[in-house]
Write a structure and sequence with these properties.
There is one protein chain. The chain has 185 residues and is an all-alpha fold. It has one domain: LemA-like domain (de novo design (two linked rop proteins), Up-down Bundle). 80% of the residues lie in helices and 0% in strands. The chain is built from seven helices and no strands. Helix 1 runs antiparallel to helix 2 and helix 2 packs antiparallel against helix 3.
Length: 185
């Protein structure tokens, strides 16, 4: 009889541990998705701003058609990735970031563009969005770190496969974005 109570007690402890681990996985996943939604809002603002920026630059740099087309293609590619595919969205955003850097580099070659009020206003708005994105990325990466650490450490690792644990990628700058680019406006 005492063996049955012992086995029953062990099963209850395992069940409680399973419930606690499951709840923690759910909490971590929801925190990551919430953090990503903050990034998603800022990205949508950036997507809305990019066509205006391209139109402003077009008038001054008509023969830079390839650069402008690359920016629009990168924007459209980033917008096409479903927002729930976070890891794919991160890759697309890194490509868009690189193409945006090239459009601002055009300002160096076109002094009139650099002095254009619309261009300066769009640049300021994009800068505000980028600052907001940086904050959101930091928060997102913190929630990803917490999620991934829990899923890869004890006791989470014991139940990760069984409870459908989801590993998330950090939102990091790719190599091209990390390169130093000198652009002054």
């Amino acid at each position: 009889m005492s063996v049955i109570f012992l086995l029953l007690g062990v099963l209850v402890v395992i069940a409680l541990l399973l419930v606690i681990v499951f709840n923690r996985f759910v909490k971590n996943k929801n925190m990551v998705k919430d953090a990503w939604s903050n990034i998603d809002v800022a990205l949508k603002r950036r997507y809305d701003l990019i066509p205006n920026l391209v139109e402003t630059v077009k008038g001054y740099a008509a023969h830079e058609k390839t650069t402008l087309e690359n920016v629009i293609q990168a924007r459209n590619a980033a917008m096409a990735v479903p927002s729930d595919e976070i890891n794919a969205q991160i890759k697309a955003e890194n490509q868009l970031q690189q193409s945006l850097r090239s459009i601002f580099a055009l300002g160096e070659a076109y002094p009139d563009l650099k002095a254009n009020a619309s261009f300066l206003d769009l640049q300021q708005k994009l800068n505000e969005i980028e600052i907001n994105l940086e904050r959101s990325r930091r928060y997102y990466n913190g929630t990803v770190r917490e999620n991934n650490t829990y899923g890869e450490s004890f006791p989470g690792v014991l139940f990760a496969g069984m409870l459908n644990y989801q590993h998330f990628d950090f939102f990091e700058a790719d190599e091209a974005t990390r390169e130093n680019v000198k652009v002054s406006f």
